[in-house]
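Dear Dr. V.,

Thank you for agreeing to look over these. As mentioned in my earlier message, I'm a first-year student in the group and I'm still getting used to reading structure tokens, so any feedback on how I've presented them would be very welcome. I ran two proteins. I've put each sequence directly above its structure. The first is here:
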Amino acid sequence: MRLRRSFALALALTIFLLGISTVTPASAVPDAQAAAPSPKVEWKPCGGDSECAKLAVPLDYEHPNNGETIKVALLRVRATDRKNRIGSLLMNPGGPGAPGAEFAQDFASILPEELQKRFDIIGFDPRGTGDTAPVKCQDNLDGVFSADYSPDSPAERADLAARLQQLAQSCQERSGDLLPFVSSESTVRDMYRIRQAVGDKKLTYVGYSYGTYLGTLYAKLFPKKVRALVLDGAIDPNLSAVEIGSEQAGGFERSLDAFLANCSANRRCPFYNAGDSAGAFDRLAAQVDAQPIPAGDGRTLGGGEFDLGVAQALYSGRLGYPRLQQALAAALRGDGKRLLGLSDEYTGRHDDGSYDSSQPAFWAIGCRDGPAVGGPEAYEAAEAQFRAAAPRVGVALLNAGLICAYWPVPPVKSVAPIRIEGTPPILVIGTTNDPATPLKWSQGLARELSSGVLLTAEGTQHTSFATTGNTCVDDAAVTYLVDLQPPPNDTKCT
């Protein structure tokens, strides 16, 4: 079944920012002191089988009683078997920056039937995203994404810096009062209150990609309030910003290499190019970098959009090959429309030129979680390492996080490394050739959770549970979520 754009976009947001997933709270918060009881939410119909609500939470958890609140947008699809309902299943699609309410509405019907029967499926827009106090920056982001993130000259480097400085300033001007309060730790405290508000004694949760980090932080803060967590496409919270970025760049480079090798070996591939797809790709990338190509409707495809379009297709693994083949072949003929369309999917650009809230939230949460690589000079110094790890995509991936060097709010303090104790079994799912979250990250997280259980899925796409039709993965996760019986550690699903 083809997933709707909201899910594809959510998974796509994991890349192109450094520094997320390295902050962790110093210690678990005693349950009695975690938060004041949250009010019950008032659910109202909001289309189809869905119900929506808003939950008031403190804006500033360091000063929760100062009266300042925001309202977290929630969506629920109720369990179909009310007599045998277990409770609520909270979900997060990734990001950071992806709204989760629309995701739950789209995704509930894709989940295995047993989960639809036994759980209320609950999605929420994390703070700063969607309808939960969205971060706002400049309206037109075309100039941000068309920038050259692999600068070849001082002039190109200065141009990129100027665009990102202007972007950071616009975010401060429009959302300065919100930016200090959009960290992942604050979102996790919101999750605690959501759990209270829906009447669950302990949390049952499925998190994809960046959503695994939220699950990890929740387990760290509230280990006694965990029922079952599925963390798919995991982020290892003990890696440094540079390790995260260079390893992720390597993952995308390997996925791109596999795509080009597949195309070179297949005469029917639209981007075959006499068996030299790799050479054709490199020439095309250099051409677009030197001079943007027409993309229809008065738009052009530049180097930054070229990189985003390629990455967007690679998220789907082999399933994304046909779209990428056609898009590259068209670009080689001088038509960048298909690649630009892929880029627009990634960035949340609408046909009228407006953008959704995902990218501003992505920058705000990622830069706040920190730590960033450092100032602009630190990014430039790291380029050699990234180029070595990923010759085609490494530098662009590194500099896509350069916005954090100019961000107006400093990152929260990191106290990694961590190890999480005192939770029931937590299921961590890694995919062998995941382009965005390498398998070694899931392996690392499973070790850092004292009760971590690792399940490895064969695949070339980003994440596996309920998204690929792998019945081995799906059955194992369902048995765990319903019966609290995880698979044996280090289970392999082909």
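The second protein is here, in the same arrangement:
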Amino acid sequence: MMYQKISTLTEKLKTAHEAAWKKIAGPGDFFSGEERIEMVRATRDADDCELTLARKNAISPFAVTGEYVGDYLLDSNTIDVIRRIASDPGRLTKAWFDQVIANGLAPEEYVEVVSVVTTSIIIDTLHQALGLAQPLLPQAREGNPRKVLNSGAIEIGAWLPVLDVPSQTSDHGLPKVPNIARSLGLVPGALQLFFGTFSPHYSLSNIKSSLSQDQAEFVASRVSAMNECFY
């Protein structure tokens, strides 16, 4: 087990991380396990990519042209999606998304890429914050993509069809089903992967921490603002 010697993380987090890597290493709904592992590798390589860094530092990330360096199983269109999500998500635009789809990545494939990339970032960022070594990538498992799509997803003017849910709010005033869940809901497997990993790290209520709920919300909001969180 990759977390055998890591006492800093709680058992709940260790279990969630192990489950996430197992899911990522297996076939998803539209990508193989090998391709999904490549998504994580391309995400991790973003910090050392000259083109990615140049775009992030530019006034407009779309004004910098070039080609990505590296040998990946994924096409350049998918690598571009991964690098921009990993490095500069706050400046993604609908025009860029439309071009990504026009270049051959289907909306449901985009959702799966988002899920894998952001899930791996959750795990890697926590390790970095705790001063822990980056987890080793698991061995990809064989198998064919499931091709499971939520046929009940609806159009509401978003970039892609979303999960159809009642518009109800919780006692904290936010929607019972957050928009990020609705967006990933186009691909049920993508939704399960992300929230299965995310939920043990953070809760909108009854947080089990030495921090109060208000303090946790302040920290979360501040970190999100500093990271220019699009959501």
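From my reading of the second output: The chain has a mean pLDDT of 88. The radius of gyration is 18 Å. Does that match how you would interpret it?

Kind regards,
E.
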